[in-house]
Fold these 2 entries.
Entry 1:
Amino acid sequence: MDFRSFFDNIVTGVGKKLEEKTTGRRLMAFHTARLAQRLFSGEHPVVWVNVTIPFEIINAFPVASTYAEFIGAALAGAEMAEPFIERAESEGFTTDGCSYHRALLGAFLNGVLPKPIGVISATCPCDGGLKSVAEIGRLADVPEMFLHVPLKSKDEGIAYLADQMRQMVAFMEKVTGEKFDRERFGEIIKLSNETADVLKRVYKYGEMSPTPYDGKALKNFQIVMLPLMGTDAGMQIAKQFEKEFSENAASGTPGMKNEKLRFLWIQNRIQFPNTLLDELEAKFGANIVWDELNDIYWEPIDPSDPFEGLARRLIENPLGGDLSIRIETLKKRAKQYKIDGAIHPCHWGCRQSQNVRSLLEKALNEVGVPMIALDVDCVDKRSFAPGQLTTRLEAFCEML
Ligand code: SF4
């Protein structure tokens, strides 16, 4: 598997399409492939992290980086994850764990991922990410650090995590041999705040009925944006989505024909190609109007003193810490987006998905929103049973 040519081809192919017409999805694919191209170019030092590490700090250094879970999702999207998942399993990594991480570990063991100069992981959102990134550090025999994210947003917790983020800067200086540019960091934070503002406006269009976008428009959106926060590319993508949605809203153009059911998607989308949502759209006018992972829940971060703000953002991530934060967020957003029903894939091996399913269902029921739990692995399609899932989803739509 030659990932370098794979991403080179995507950059060239999507670049040509962008010359014909600029769309938010194309820009997102282009800049994500550019990021991956940089990662596999062999020309930049690489730092592997997990999904909640603040990229504003990483982006202040001349490195190529992405988060571990991105690899699992990208491999699944290209229908290439299974051989790597099998490799990880054959090395003893448990099938009870998350396949985002098994795919990553298998790819690293197969030698198709670049060796890092250092690795950084956080205890949020999950132990699996922390341990998988640490395992890569061990296999590559490079320095490793982790952020211990306290469970409550008490002041001492924020100060404690902010201090670890300052240590993260020192770690990056040590592994890269580069001096931290404080002024550049302030500019990155400023741009990250401005991008978050645009994203808030993008998500606001989801309150419209019918929604000026369809259920695929914002698939994996914010999670793909994370490494691009504080970059010109991130801002360009955000503004393009805002432009498209505002034009549709102004002209009364719905994102899909005949929207009848408004769905909330909990946590991860199914990453490999499948037709479940197309079928629901065609038969029931079902639209995903809000994804749980698309949420600017944090306040702007002070560019002159960013560490506390970055720490607060991480501590208050609804997927980490006290479950009541996640539940209250889901209930609030369900009302805000006038949700009819919630789909929870209950990604196999994810403790954030599986363990809390009945509590999420109960909470959503309290605001009049039924939830269906699918029991699907969002990355590993070996056990994917589309027939069964379609039957259950259709029954759910009929009930609604
Ligand atoms: S799906 Fe769950 S276990 Fe997997 S990376 Fe996300 S939070 Fe962690």
Entry 2:
Amino acid sequence: MRTPVNVADYERLAKETLDPGAWGYYAGGAGDELTLRENEAAWARWCFRPRVLVDVAGAATTVTVLGQELGLPLLIAPVAFQRMAHEDGEAGTARAARDAGTIMCVSTMTTTPLDEVAAQGSLRWFQLYVFRDEGLNRSLVDQAREHGYTGLVLTVDAPVLGLRERDLRTGFTISPDITVASLGRGGLTPLEAFAMVSPSVTWHDVERFAIEAGLPVVLKGIQTAEDAFLAVEHGAAAIVVSNHGGRQLDGVRATIDLLPECVEAVDGRIPVLIDGGIRRGTDVVKALALGARAALAARPFVWGLATGGEAGVRHVLELLREEIRVSLALLGCTSPEQLRPEHVARRD
Ligand SMILES: Cc1cc2nc3c(=O)[nH]c(=O)nc-3n(C[C@H](O)[C@H](O)[C@H](O)COP(=O)(O)O)c2cc1C
């Protein structure tokens, strides 16, 4: 293949590069993968309503999220075990994020220590799966704060691990030399790591983290207006409308279909972010038109990392930024803030 020109090209290359177990882990979803497919398909059910004869010279792609200006309205979602995709791992992803001027969310299951990721100089948030071990939670949050992470992402859609059948079929395991830095242990399967995660986290804990963490708390995995409302009430600084990329409860709706009700419930009090199935700059622009402040993507950056390490992630970010820039201009917008629900319409 010639130089990849979009995320789908990178996906094909990553599939050729990764061994079947790792590919299944990164690409797969839960159960019948209904939600995995739906997340991607749903973006195509929204179409654009462009406005013309607007001067779009000097248009920008920058947005501000929790007080930080980003070069594009797209963050890097947390992804576990990145050194399994490429030896550059999380440090490579962080350098690419730094150069694009965006936030990298560093997973609890990072295979590179938090201080080493921090040393690459990107904007960064830390994603926490709340462990049964309170001391471990405290120590990870303290490390994040000390190393300049500016947000604490609590993933709330994973009290237990989703049932991922691809991993059962391939007999997926992680090699012992890939160490989960936060646990100081190598060779853990996702199921073994999750056995340490608490299934008992509630809104009370959200409030506790919001008061004690010393970092803005971002709740990732909100899927209803009811929970979006409660997130604001319990002190969240932002929410991410997310179904974990179709990897947790199969059969939930695509995130773009959940966004409007969550935006309405939040009513402008905190920023609403979204992830799930974003493969194009046009998907990001549709999300912003429907009220998201910014979007996140996970697999596109995994495909970049697996294919070309740091350079692959950097290129995927550049491709998506360019797609966002061109789509904004063709819609008659000079900045992401100008996007409105009137810029999109549902196909049906
Ligand atoms: C391989 C893989 C690993 C992931 N690891 C984590 C994780 O450690 N923590 C977390 O909160 N979400 C994790 N996610 C979910 C992503 O952060 C994100 O919500 C979702 O994948 C977005 O959908 P997309 O992959 O279609 O962009 C993971 C997703 C994938 C694909």
